[in-house]
Amino acid sequence: MDSEKNLSKPRNSFTSSIGFVLAAAGSAVGLGNIWRFPYLAAKDGGGIFLFIYLILAVTFGFAMLITEVAIGRKTQESPLTAYKKLNSKWSFLGFFSFIVPFIIYPYYCVIGGWVMKYMFTYLAFLGEVTTEEGFFTGFITSQWQPILYTVIFALCCFIIVYKGVERGIERYSKILMPILFLIVVFIAIYSLTLKHTDADGVTRTGLQGASIYFIPNFKGLTFSKLLYIIVDALGQLFYSLSISMGIMVAYGSYMKKENNLGKSVNQIEIFDTGIAILAGMMIIPAVFAFSGTDGMSAGPGLIFITLPKVFLSLGKFGTFIGLIFFVMVMFAAITSAVSILEAIVSSMIDRLHWSRKKAVLVMSSVAFVISIVVCLGYNKFYFEYNLPNGAVAQILDIFDYVSNNILMPVVGLLTCLLIGWVVKPKTIVDEITRNGEHFARKTLYIIMIKFLCPVLLFVILLASFGIFR
């Protein structure tokens, strides 16, 4: 019966172009933009990283993003089945595109639970306790608290995806994304006004931190270091634009044929890159003012350990700033997690002809079981494993490494080979221009998808195995 119902129904779609753009941008604007982009920018010479990132965003990022959206709209299929429709011999690529979000979603819910814990703590006006020694470590290594918050976070995602494309994903994206943008702008502007004098009498300002962020630092720059920066920027684009995760294929399949595909992708790029840059303005000046350059290298601990100390130093107003910051991070985490779950659910609907209700219930349940295992990876199932890139990992890190460092570059590389050399770039170009739209970057697109993108993706894959260490 589920099969018959599904086959007789027209495919769900976003009701408007802006609905698609906000949903896709919501997917792109996630935790990677909030903490990973500022951290990499600070680590990789500020303005140098920004300059390289922007160049790659309008070339590599654009080519990969518009390809996936066009594949989705052309085939009207989810990632699991779309590639087979382009070429029956490439159905295996659909499987890889499905596995990526399936691996990511469970541990993303766990991290979302961490954000929710901090948001509730600030909501209870207890933000100062988050700065106590060992608070974060104590929380993630406890047995039941992380599971509880993971349940709450996953339930929010479940409800939105359960409601469907129009009544769930699009409706909530139209609400959450404008609020997220306003909060980011507010904190970014406020961050620039900060000023702090440490125990040694050294005064640092937010504006000084902003100058480190925006002005290129060529001191000590070597070819080897430049290569590292390029690899970091390329890796960040995967996080920032949600490419090679199956998400944009799924969202593209919900895009109406009459909408201007090229214009919509440009808007997603602008929105996502703007938020990423604003995230840097929001975090780097504040952290520099209170912790100097040392505080800017905190990596993943930036939002859970370093920033709460900054909020504490601002007094009572800092608790308010901390609250709206974690509300903003929560919105970003939910919009991204929803898109990841939708990529999984849509694949089950298209491949097995399940109803949305059945697909969301089954896949959410399976993902939740895996999420519990990830949570227990910090206590009951704790172990350490040395990854090929030199990092010491446990369960969450291994999931992240396999999905982001191996599978995503592989999916991207295979997509380039399929479009560039098997079905040919004209397949995508025709979809982009189907309504008579002018494709201004057509020549650049063909060069990127056939030659440059595969090379860059191969470099990322080599870097994930520690070749350049």
TrEMBL record:
- Principal localization? membrane
Which domain of life, per UniProt? Bacteria
Provide this UniProt record's keywords sorted from A to Z: Membrane, Transmembrane, Transmembrane helix, Transport
Question: Transmembrane region positions?
Answer: 12-35, 47-71, 92-116, 146-163, 175-193, 226-249, 270-290, 310-338, 359-379, 406-423, 444-468
Which cellular compartments is it found in? Answer: Membrane
Under the heading PROSITE patterns, the entry gives:
NA_NEUROTRAN_SYMP_3
Recorded hits in NCBIfam families, A to Z, give: Na_transp (NF037979)
Name listed for the protein in its UniProt record: NSS family neurotransmitter:Na+ symporter
